[in-house]
Write a structure and sequence with these properties.
Order of helices and strands: HHEEEEEEHEEHHE
Mean pLDDT: 83
Radius of gyration: 21 Å
Distance between the termini: 73 Å
Number of strands: 9
Number of helices: 5
Strand order of the largest sheet: 3-2-5-6
Number of domains: 2
Oligomer: single chain
Low-confidence stretches: 1-32
Strand content: 15-25%
Length: 221
């Protein structure tokens, strides 16, 4: 009888986690995280204010790291993290249901350098929202122009490397499709690949433009 009660208790706990994320996961417990809709938010900076805005609801957190159940918010979800002397970081989250990067790009879905490698293991089983977010804020206050320009040149290099990695993945995927598909489907595959590549160029250009706006708007002591 006791074994039966224990089994039912464990079963109900697992069901509760799967449906609503009613117990918070911990970073060293991957088994619990697998069933949870909670997102673990980290950053190298401290004392951040992060706001999570759904269609009708706003949730605020002031401590890093923290857990948040994003599935309680109606997407698209706008995440805004801020700190004095840093530019605000804004991330828009939408559920990820398709894990083929080529399809996501060709369909103009929400693709960033950060989420381009997401698989089913990286998102909540019901919400499709990320299980982990790492927030990086860029500095906006510098001692002089040389320090500012060196900092943003390094940021630009990092952005380019990230998108180059995405482009390389797409090129490899397109080459594989070209080798494996019949002549009849080549035109369709080629069109999808071209759309994806153009979308990568556009996303890279947007990120670099945003970077330049921040560089020019930064303060010098």
């Amino acid at each position: 009888m006791r074994r039966s009660i224990n089994f039912i208790s464990k079963l109900m706990t697992g069901f509760c986690l799967l449906i609503s994320g009613c117990a918070q996961p911990v970073s060293d417990n991957p088994g619990l995280t697998k069933l949870s809709e909670y997102t673990f938010v980290t950053s190298h900076q401290t004392k951040l204010m992060c706001e999570y805005n759904g269609t009708y609801t706003t949730v605020r957190h002031t401590k890093i790291p923290h857990f948040i159940n994003l599935s309680i918010l109606k997407p698209p979800i706008k995440v805004r993290c801020s700190k004095e002397n840093y530019w605000d970081k804004v991330i828009v989250l939408t559920p990820i249901r398709t894990f083929n990067l080529l399809d996501r790009l060709a369909l103009r879905q929400n693709v960033t350098a950060q989420n381009s490698n997401y698989s089913r293991a990286n998102v909540g089983p019901l919400s499709g929202l990320p299980r982990k977010l790492h927030i990086v804020l860029r500095k906006k206050s510098f001692k002089n122009a040389d320090e500012r320009d060196l900092y943003y040149a390094e940021e630009a290099r990092f952005v380019k490397e990230n998108w180059d990695a995405v482009a390389s993945k797409i090129n490899k995927s397109c080459q594989t499709k070209k080798n494996n598909h019949s002549e009849l489907s080549l035109n369709i595959e080629h069109a999808a690949c071209q759309k994806a590549k153009e979308q990568i160029k556009k996303l890279l250009r947007n990120d670099l433009m945003r970077l330049e706006v921040e560089r020019r708007g930064s303060l010098l002591e």
